[in-house]
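[09:14] KT: can someone run the structure on this one? pasting the chain below
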Amino acid sequence: MNSTDLSNMDMDKFGCLDQAKRIWAVAAIHGQSSALADLHEELVTKFQAGDRLVYLGNYFGRENTAVETVN
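[09:31] RB: done, structure tokens below
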């Protein structure tokens, strides 16, 4: 499998975004649910059909807002 041939990729283990128009990536949220909500408000004005939003990790950490962050 080369970098562009995804035909043998195990789709149960990995997501595939090859049909995405644009990919928006959010990293290192660190429990900052209000900042994440602000980001979502900004993205909704720019998001287009075919776009995908990916959260890369570090959801929890600096603030005690685990439930708010996930919701």
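[09:33] KT: thanks! The first strand starts at residue 23 and ends at 26.
[09:34] RB: yep, looked fine to me
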